[in-house]
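Posting this for the archive.
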Amino acid sequence: MSTRAQPVTRRPAYRRSSAARKRSIRRRRIGAVLGAAIVASLAIALVWPGFHHAVREIALPLRHEDIIRQQARDKGLDPALIAAVIYAESRFRDGQTSQAGAEGLMQITPATARMIARKSGGVSFTVRDLGTPQVNIAYGSWYLRYLMGRYAGNETFALAAYNAGEGNVDRWIARARQRNEDLTIEAIPFSETRTYVQRVLTAERQYRHSYARELGI
């Protein structure tokens, strides 16, 4: 085998300059498209008064605010809390059914709904009624009010129980007391419930700030 160095093949200068020109053209085109999109967005925002509202509705939807206001008054709840629970449970999409059988906007299980009906006097209730926004929000609000009372107004405990059940929360509280510790959000054993409580509390602040007029706050 020969060890003589092989000549280095150089790409012709005109090819390099041609490729560079193509890259430069592509960059200019991308920049022009992005610039046009920004200008179009600004123009829409100036011409269409509902632009910011539409963006807000996508990120933080709100429906059935009349029912939420009514139930908040009837149950003595913050309407932003009811809206935040609906957001965390279903993002205000009607007709949602979980794998556990929870139904509707506030994702209420049939067993919980029957308990609510029994305690609230809903003698004509059927599980199909959970598909109705009025009934679903009324039952979910009743349960929130019940949990807030059961846990002496502690919103963290009430929301944790809404997600994980009263039995689990009672055990967590008892265990924390045995250790002389506070049951903070970070101390909730279930990661899903920790995330849920944080999501609802964050959404509650956002609804109170963004929808004060719609929620009658």
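Residues 13-47 form the longest helix (35 residues). The chain has ten helices and no strands.
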